[in-house]
Amino acid sequence: MSRLFCFGLGYSAGFLARDLAGEGWQIAGTSREGAAGLDGFRIHRFSRGAPLADAAKDLAGTTHLLVSVPPDAAGEPVLAEHGSDIAALVGLRWLGYLSTTGVYGDRGGGWVDERSALTPSGERGRRRVAAEAG
Known about the structure:
Elements: E1 3-7, H1 11-22, E2 26-31, E3 42-45, H2 55-59, E4 64-67, H3 77-87, E5 94-97, H4 123-133
Parallel strand pairs: 1-2, 1-4, 2-3, 4-5
């Protein structure tokens, strides 16, 4: 059974979660506000300084993990709070990170892809580049 855990199961990650749930995947994740609009998914509260209460239990069985929590001024909160818990997941087959096109900077309408140089022009983009490196 495939199980997706989303740190930051909100608007963007919710589209993926609903599609995968329709294919029979188990879905769980985190939210700062609670489970509004995420019926049927097991939701845990998470934020910097308020990690999962029982990460080993909450992440158990996770085969796919998506980080959709934006970095803050102190860096990437998921890695800071749960990096070692994620590293300990023996059944993890895939880990993804939702970033932003802001990591590429202003290209004047030019094309970018995953091989393009990261040249963020704003603080938000610089934070994302640092989080991606983590």
